[in-house]
Amino acid sequence: MNLSVNPNDKTPIYRQLYEQIAAEVLSGALAPGTPLPPIRTVSKELGVSMITVRSAWEELIRDGYLLTRTGSGCFVAPISEAHRQSKVNEKLLASIDETVAGARALGVTADELCAMIRDRF
Amino acid sequence: MNLSVNPNDKTPIYRQLYEQIAAEVLSGALAPGTPLPPIRTVSKELGVSMITVRSAWEELIRDGYLLTRTGSGCFVAPISEAHRQSKVNEKLLASIDETVAGARALGVTADELCAMIRDRF
Amino acid sequence: MNLSVNPNDKTPIYRQLYEQIAAEVLSGALAPGTPLPPIRTVSKELGVSMITVRSAWEELIRDGYLLTRTGSGCFVAPISEAHRQSKVNEKLLASIDETVAGARALGVTADELCAMIRDRF
Amino acid sequence: MNLSVNPNDKTPIYRQLYEQIAAEVLSGALAPGTPLPPIRTVSKELGVSMITVRSAWEELIRDGYLLTRTGSGCFVAPISEAHRQSKVNEKLLASIDETVAGARALGVTADELCAMIRDRF
DNA sequence: GTGGTCTAGACCACA
DNA sequence: GTGGTCTAGACCACC
Fold first, then answer.
1. How far is residue D52's CA from residue D64's CA, in Å, rounded to a whole number?
2. Domain-located, residue B5
3. Residue C111: which domain range?
4. Which end of chain D has a smaller Cβ tally under 10 Å, C or N?
């Protein structure tokens, strides 16, 4: 689990952490049950405030990516394959919708957009 | 020119206005030289503060979409077709690259992605 | 007397007119006694409001470049050679002081500045 | 970092602040990474509104002189020496060209102009 | 009438 | 604590 933060990025640091962990869980790189390092460790290694790390963890717990066992720390939450797929699709669709909206606003047709997509793939 | 704001959206109001005007200029819906309604008018119609509208206008002026003639009002700035195309491509490519990256990470093929795109268009 | 205005310039239109006439008077291109075209003529030719032209004329009269004879229009005011020179020097010194201030703020020495000046001369 | 504002000056306060900070960054007086005092502090010390300070900061951020880390404050942005030099030259040359043009129109020689410059330095 | 600037005071997200 | 955004209302220069 290689976490990193970019302070120059406009997205909040706690959000950067959230995205990285969520992506690793969804891709399977972080298997359910895997223990996470203590907050204070992450905090020191990344050079960010413990409060910031705690914020990220809280959102991850809220969204079902992590769970906490008092006294033992945080772990990757169990997640069904169906659930995983649905989250993955949700993310992809959101991204697609944004791109499509941008293209329509700029007067680009579906054909042109698909051509550009194949080009970048 | 149909402007609208969504106060529940997390993106700032002035940013929402910016995106809408910029898109209309880039798509050609707003031709160079077209006068914009006075800030006070836009402000009243949208129910937002004059200053919020001004913030959006300021960024649009800075980025070359609008120009202002004090005492006469604001106008769509002249823009070369080449410049317009390059801006359109820049905006779209950023969005496309993000979507493509997400799709590849999930093992979605270009064909499948294009099918999804056409579906949402 | 070739007047022109640039609406895209950030300096007010009436100021642009002022500067052009003042420069022509100081350089001698407009001799004392020369009649100026009527305001409404200038207004039409330049495509600017009569009020704008009037503002420029007013400042020029106030600063002694023009004088008005009711019923006959405006004329270039008589100006002594000493007066002309003093105004010219005043303008040049103001320009120099601004440049020097800028150079000092940027940490450029007098020698470096002079070298750049000779280069551009 | 000694900031000051002159309310009698015709140039906007936020512009005065912009020029002062930009000059200090370009001259090297403010090194990259240096933290700036909080907006609220600057605001109180200068006796101007927080928003006026914010306006200046906003332009400085936009133009790459500063960067902001919400929650931590504003900092002098990293800038390459080459970039710094090019900006310095750009600023000075604009000022120099204006002065030189005025001098030539008055028949002042380069030597005379340089003498005047050294005198005012 | 227009836009340009400034003020005082507020609420929010982030660290 | 920090900066980011928004409001309501004011004064000015310009056209």
1. 19
2. no
3. 81-120
4. N
